[in-house]
Design brief:
There is one protein chain. The chain has about 725 residues and is of the alpha/beta class. It folds into two domains: about 280 residues, no CATH class; about 425 residues, Rossmann fold (3-Layer(aba) Sandwich), CATH 3.40.50. The protein has 20 helices and 16 strands. The strands form four sheets. An eight-stranded mixed sheet has the order 5-10-9-8-11-14-16-15, with helices on both faces. A three-stranded mixed sheet has the order 1-3-2. It has a three-stranded mixed sheet with strand order 4-12-13, sandwiched between helices. β2 and β3 form a beta hairpin. It starts with a helix and ends with a helix.
Length: about 725
């Protein structure tokens, strides 16, 4: 079954459950013995079947929803103290009662019950193969009779007929319990009278009270059935185009062979324990597909933003206090000053790059507006056209009408994890160029770095009592509670705060690239060192999925705050999210199915159906946003790993393009476009510092050619990015 087909089926079953229960019930499919309903959490669980049959599934759903509607939870809880045999009898009778109620309330499921039962009977779901109906105990014949919607040729003795009338008149759960007591007593009494039939009974005897052979003084008061095997009835059903309900037959023996279940015994006596064979068979896994892996069904938790987000003001306070304290060390003081000089130089070099982005954006925006503009008549005479009034009707002034422009907004998400260590500095440089760009064109923006540094949590050593940044309700996906979103930039920041935040971010990334790339504490020059960042801002693992879950709350808040019509979501990450931690209240094993919108979506650990990509597609559809990804990568080998789901022929073409252009775009990651950019590709302006007064003509030519090639390669990515934005 394809994923698309499965999704449709799941949606249909969920809608059926909602219809039946007139409430929002979650319908889950998992590795369970039989269908069940969690009354407290309103969750219906059905098993995997070896043969998918819509009527069987619909019947089970209707049955379990009926339990939810009509079986009192407190009444059933009291049954825990009763015997297995009594609970077995009660279960059969209660199933009969609630099935009748749901079919009366929703007549549309009557057909599902008939066809679904026939399907289960064919598959020996009740353990009836090669058995005659006459051989079953009263409780089992009642079970088969009513589950077949009274279509099976089941016979009852005259003594048993009043029990059938009592079943028909069951009104409440109390009625069920009383009748179960009567039928159980009757079955035990009949078994005591006819102990010669103990061989045909699966009973659990009282070992201290075994009795010898006993005469069968109450054998029968009616004729025997010659052949009423279920196979014969099923063969007849197969020949019929439409199901018919045959009349009940009452010409069978009065004292039928009564059967129960339990441990086998060669004789019966004393206090025997008898249970329903068909009810126990109904709960056995003979029709379940045990080869399928269990599933975990989870909904998205709610982010607690006041605890999850570290505001930019706190980020700045932490950096100011940290680097101020480091200035007391001579080497670090010198290193900080040198790094500040490098930042100022970088900012100056970025000005023409930012201006280039602004120019490209404005050009594309104006071109689009021009294409959308229309010419309209004003109704005012044009004096220059009056001379042509005799032979032309177009003598009125015209104006160009330009539709209202949509308000843009941009949200950036920066990966602050260890896997980004070797490219984090170049990534930060790219981010700063983009931030300065959106600031200059007056586009509302917000920038977050995601991480899971446990040092932010004062109870980091005690995970049970750790500060929660996401809810942990039953059925919600377990997420990393150490996740933090550091707000680096925001539209409302002052110019000074924005400059300082950029400087500290540049300084932190400089330290990490020195550690990951140079493998030492020096940035570029050997004459100075940079202090390590504040302890709370170390590179750790990758809570990308947690961050995207938080975006489900942050994006609509951002759109409402700035009245944004078109939101662009930009992620700068290597895409390697942490694995999920399970679902609250469920076994921590199995395939994930996460509820995104109205449906549960199967999520793989990685690849096109990963939770990351499904979340991106979900956010894109829900909030009508454009999603753009950036990943700075050193070597093709790392990129090839990211594309292992991509066909080899496509990867070969991408490799050639990447090696030539230093970037490649992919649309298979849940993004509208994902840019893989070679990490040594800088957004370059004019740089001819190598040319001196003594340079030869050939040196000048070579330097100029190299500079132009670098500028063209670096700006191609920006051109494509602006295309997506504008």
């Amino acid at each position: 079954m394809t994923k698309k087909t499965y999704t449709n089926i799941k949606s249909q079953k969920s809608n059926l459950a909602k219809l039946l229960a007139t409430e929002n019930i979650q319908v889950l499919q998992n590795q369970v013995k039989t269908a069940s309903f969690d009354v407290k959490n309103r969750v219906l669980t059905i098993p995997f079947f070896k043969h998918d049959d819509d009527n069987v599934v619909d019947m089970l759903i209707a049955h379990e929803v009926s339990h939810a509607l009509y079986t009192p939870s407190k009444g059933w809880e009291k049954m825990a103290n009763r015997s297995d045999e009594f609970r077995s009898f009660v279960n059969v009778l209660e199933d009969t009662r609630i099935d009748k109620l749901i079919q009366k309330k929703y007549p549309g499921v009557v057909s599902n019950y008939k066809k679904g039962f026939t399907k289960l009977l064919k598959d020996n779901f009740f353990g009836t193969k090669d058995r005659k109906l006459d051989e079953y105990a009263l409780i089992d014949r009642i079970n088969l009779w009513y589950k077949s919607s009274k279509s099976l040729p089941v016979a009852f003795s005259k003594k048993e007929d009043h029990f059938i009338k009592a079943v028909d008149n069951l009104k409440s759960f109390d009625d069920v319990q009383k009748l179960a007591e009567e039928i159980l007593g009757y079955c035990k009494e009949e078994l005591k009278k006819d102990k010669s039939k103990a061989e045909t009974y699966k009973v659990e005897p009282d070992s201290d009270n075994q009795q010898d052979k006993q005469d069968s003084d109450s054998q029968s008061d009616s004729s025997e059935s010659s052949s009423n095997k279920l196979e014969d009835w099923l063969d007849k059903k197969d020949q019929e185009e439409n199901s018919r309900i045959p009349d009940k037959q009452k010409d069978k023996t009065e004292n039928e062979d009564l059967k129960g279940t339990g441990k086998q015994s060669n004789s019966a006596g004393g206090n025997v324990k008898i249970r329903s064979i068909t009810d126990e068979a109904y709960n056995k896994p003979q029709l379940r597909d045990e080869t399928k892996r269990s599933r975990m069904y989870g909904t998205l938790p709610t982010p607690l933003l006041d605890k999850l987000i570290i505001p930019y003001k706190q980020f700045l306070r932490d950096q100011v206090n940290h680097y101020t304290s480091q200035m007391s060390y001579r080497d670090y003081a010198h290193g900080i000053k040198k790094c500040e000089e490098k930042f100022n130089k970088f900012k100056t070099q970025s000005n023409p790059i930012v201006n280039y982005l602004v120019k490209e954006f404005e050009m594309r925006k104006n071109a689009r507006l021009h294409a959308r503009s229309a010419t309209a008549k004003t109704g005012i005479l044009d004096p220059l056209k009056l001379h042509s009034y005799k032979y032309a009707e177009d003598i009125f002034k015209k104006i160009s009408v330009v539709p209202n422009e949509k308000n843009h907004g941009m949200i950036f998400l920066l990966d602050w994890s260890g896997s980004m260590g070797d490219t984090i500095h170049n990534t930060v440089e790219q981010l700063l160029n983009l931030v300065w760009f959106v600031k200059k064109v007056n586009i509302p923006f917000s920038v977050y770095a995601f991480m899971n540094n446990g040092k932010h949590n004062h109870q980091a050593s005690d995970k049970e009592n750790a500060t929660k940044v996401f809810t942990e309700n039953h059925g919600e996906v377990k997420v990393d509670q150490y996740t933090r979103l550091v707000q680096l930039f925001a539209t409302k920041m002052t110019k000074k705060d924005m400059l300082n935040s950029a400087k500290y971010l540049y300084m932190m990334s400089s330290y990490w690239v020195s550690r990951y790339v140079n493998r030492r504490t020096f940035l570029v020059d050997d004459d100075y060192s940079i202090p390590s960042p504040h302890n709370d801002y170390y590179l750790c693992s990758t809570p990308l999925d947690e961050s995207l879950i938080a975006m489900d709350t942050i994006i609509p808040m951002f759109q409402n705050q700035y009245k944004v019509d078109k939101t662009i979501f930009v992620s700068l990450t290597d895409g390697g999210a942490n694995s999920l931690n399970g679902v609250h209240g469920q076994s921590d094993w199995g395939n994930y199915h996460v509820k995104l919108g109205k449906n549960y979506i199967e999520c793989d650990y990685s690849g096109p159906q990963s939770l990351t990509n499904n979340l991106l597609r979900y956010l894109k559809k829900k909030y009508q946003i454009k999603t753009v990804g950036f990943y700075l990568i050193k070597k093709w080998r790392r990129l090839e790993y990211q594309l292992y789901h991509t066909p080899q022929i496509v990867k070969d073409k991408m490799k050639v393009f990447f090696n030539k252009n230093k970037y490649v775009a992919d649309k298979q990651k849940g993004y509208d476009v994902y840019f893989f950019v070679k990490s040594d590709t800088k957004v370059e302006g004019a740089n001819l510092d190598s040319i001196t007064n003594d340079s030869k003509k050939s040196d000048i030519k070579r330097a100029f050619s190299k500079n132009m090639k670098g500028r063209l390669q670096s700006r191609v990515v920006l051109q494509n990015f602006i295309k997506e934005v504008a």
